[in-house]
Amino acid sequence: MVIDGTDAADDERVALGLALLERLEHESLTLPETVDRIETITTDPTVTRTILDTAELRGIIEREDGIIRPKSRQYVRFDEQVVTKDGEFSCRRCGSSLSTGYFIKLETGEIGPFGSSCIRKVTGRE
Fold first, then answer.
1. pLDDT per residue over 56-97, tens digit each?
2. Cα(74)–Cα(88) distance, rounded to whole angstroms?
């Protein structure tokens, strides 16, 4: 269903992107590093731009000279919000084959699967 040029899938990806940006443990990221995180949800440049613009308007991030600074300190709680599932997966960040996938469970939905090192990279633990 398309409403004003956007569809429900775009809205869901924007909501997931905002939720992810709210939980990054980085003091700051370059724009390419931030886009790397967002690309775990979408590779559509229009949706990526919408996520960044909306995050800035809502005060989730600050942007200046290609540097992104997350404002929230609501980090992903690994013991509660990261779940593992066994199966045949491909990492959403690097594309590696996985037999165990790590998923971030947020109120807006689930992001993943990720490998053990990519889950740490995406959330800012590494």
1. 999 999 999 999 999 977 777 777 889 999 999 999 999 999
2. 31
Which of these, 126, 106, 113, lies nearest to 26 by C-alpha position? 126
- What the chain holds in terms of domains, given with CATH numbers, is 2-70 (1.10.10), 78-123 (no CATH)
Joined tokens for residue 30: 């370059």
What's the pTM? 0.80
* C-alpha distance from residue 27 to each of 16, 62, 74, 87 (Å): 20, 11, 13, 34
Q: Is the CB of residue 84 less than 8 Å from the CB of residue 102?
A: yes
Task: Say if strands 6-7 and 2-3 run parallel, antiparallel, or are unpaired.
Answer: antiparallel
Nearest of 66, 112, 109 to residue 93 by alpha carbon: 112
Q: Please give the Cα distance from 27 to 86 (Å, whole number).
A: 32
What single DSSP character describes residue 25? -
* Helix (H), strand (E) at residue 83: strand 82-90
What is the separation, in whole angstroms, between the first and last Cα of the chain? 39
Read off the DSSP letter of residue 60.
Answer: S
